[in-house]
Write a structure and sequence with these properties.
Elements: H1 2-31, E1 60-67, E2 73-80, E3 83-84, H2 86-95, H3 109-121, E4 128-133, H4 138-146, E5 164-168, H5 174-184, E6 188-192, E7 197-201, E8 206-210, E9 216-220
Parallel strand pairs: 1-4, 6-8
Antiparallel strand pairs: 1-2, 2-3, 4-5, 5-7, 6-7, 8-9
Helix pairs in contact: 3-5
Length: 232
Amino acid sequence: MLSTIRSSVFAPKVFRRVALGVAALTFTFVAVRTPVRAEAGDSLPTVGIAHVAPTEVKESYVLRLRHLHTGEALNVVYRQGTEYSAEGIAKLNTFLRDHRTMDTANYDPAEFELLHKLMAKLGRPNGEIDIVCGYRTPETNHMLRTRAALTGVAEHSQHMLSKAIDIRVPGISTRALRDAALSLGLGGVGYYPISQFVHVDVGPVRQWSFGGGGTLLARAHHKRHKGRGRNA
């Protein structure tokens, strides 16, 4: 009789303990995640990883210039990809000002493209260009043209139109610079071996030389611009 009473009293406690133990085992079993082995050819889903399209990297077009009259140096990005930099172009316009009058003008961006292509042609894409002359006001152009009988300065110079620059490239001979410019077939190329610079512009395609003895020899490739160095 006593044993029966004890069994009836303690049975619920034992049952509760067993039930709690089973629940704990069940919880443990659920909490442990079994790793999934991927079969060949299967693709596992990625969770919480955002797929972002790669950003297009635009090529930077750079010019490194040194002005022989002002002593200024400029390292500027004038174009990113297909878009010109307004800030870069403005810096170039200021840098290439008429250093005698300090007047500036808006350069034709094609002139900067010409310089960039010329340096690439020379195998010096990051090389420095020495600037002998950039923009000229009509007054400066007239003064330079009339200071001697023959100066090699044209009456209707492309310098006044902000389409021409006289340059040197350190380490490159004037002749080699002239030949590289001619090979591009872009605009006018003037060869000044005595003064040791080359004129490059984005006007009509033509070439000329201003050498020893004050001689000016020109060859035009455009019917409207035949003559002796016109638009130099």
